Amino acid sequence: MSERKANARFAQESVVEPEHIARARTHALEIGAEPISAAVGAQAALIAAATGAQQMVEIGTGAGVSGLWLLHGAPRAILTTIEKEPEHLGTARQSFHDAKVPAARTRLITGRAADVLPRMNEASYDIVFVDADPENVIEYVEHGLRLVRPGGTVLVPRVLADGRVADPVQRDPLTTAYRSLIQETQNSPAVLGALSIVGEGLLQLTTITDPA
Questions:
Q1: Own/partner pairs for 84-89, CB < 8 Å, 24+ apart?
Q2: Cβ(123)–Cβ(150) below 8 Å
Q3: 100-148, pLDDT tens digit by residue?
Q4: Among 1, 34, 74, 118, which residue's Cβ finds the most Cβ atoms within 10 Å?
Q5: Could you tell me the pLDDT band of residue 1, with boundaries at 50, 70 and 90?
Q6: Architecture of the domain spanning 3-207
Q7: What is the DSSP letter of 164?
Q8: How far is the C-alpha of 58 from the C-alpha of 95, rounded, in Å?
Q9: 199 in Cβ contact with 36 (< 8 Å)
Q10: How many alpha carbons fall within 13 Å on the CB side of residue 80?
Q11: Any residues with CB less than 8 A from the CB of 94 and at least 6 apart, and which?
């Protein structure tokens, strides 16, 4: 095993996932809603805590794993989460209930993100977490950057596409979309971006209030 792979494995395995999130992960796997890794969840929780997030949006609820990680970092925040699959949303609702998250802290919306996001107020949220319909990731990130307050953060997991993004031979539409997203945001004067390679990868984007 190479040093890089050993480091990645150690970082992944060192995360201690809270019991209520581990339960939600089990339910996610049972219904086929692939959850984010614990390593990515821990990073999202840290960012939520460090930024003092009060209002968060999640695009793609799944079974509630990522939402619970965000609320783990910002337990007093309100999470608005969007999911097009009613079964997934029902499982997430139960996960939030089992974790004793007050109902007033979550707003669950059933619908397609492409239909819901244009109706949401811009510059009103601290964090937007984008984890749905990867073929529309660029569109959703554009919405996310519109929705966050100045200095807010957009988080995009899975951007390494299981290693395909780093392989120049891979040119399928999804891989190309992720690759373009990373390159364009890194070159943008209006956005500060960082890419974490732990887990399945996490692109972190923060708006710059006064771009040069």
A1: 84/110, 84/111, 84/112, 84/113, 84/132, 85/33, 86/110, 87/31, 88/31, 88/33, 88/61, 88/62, 88/63, 89/61
A2: yes
A3: 999 999 999 999 999 999 999 999 999 999 999 999 999 999 999 999 9
A4: 74
A5: low
A6: 3-Layer(aba) Sandwich (3.40)
A7: T
A8: 15
A9: yes
A10: 19
A11: 27
Take residue 206 and report the two structure tokens written for it: 């923060």
Q: Are strands 202-207 and 191-196 parallel, antiparallel or unpaired?
A: antiparallel
The mean of the pLDDT values for the chain is 93
The average pLDDT across 26-46 equals 96
Instruction: Please choose, from the candidates 184, 62, 188, 183, the residue with its C-alpha nearest in 3D space to the C-alpha of residue 132.
Output: 62
Q: What is the pLDDT of residues 45-62, one digit of tens each?
A: 999 999 999 999 999 999
Contact 24, 99 (CB under 8 A): yes
Cβ within 8 Å of residue 116, ≥6 positions away: 82, 109
pLDDT per position as a tens digit, 150-161:
999 999 999 999
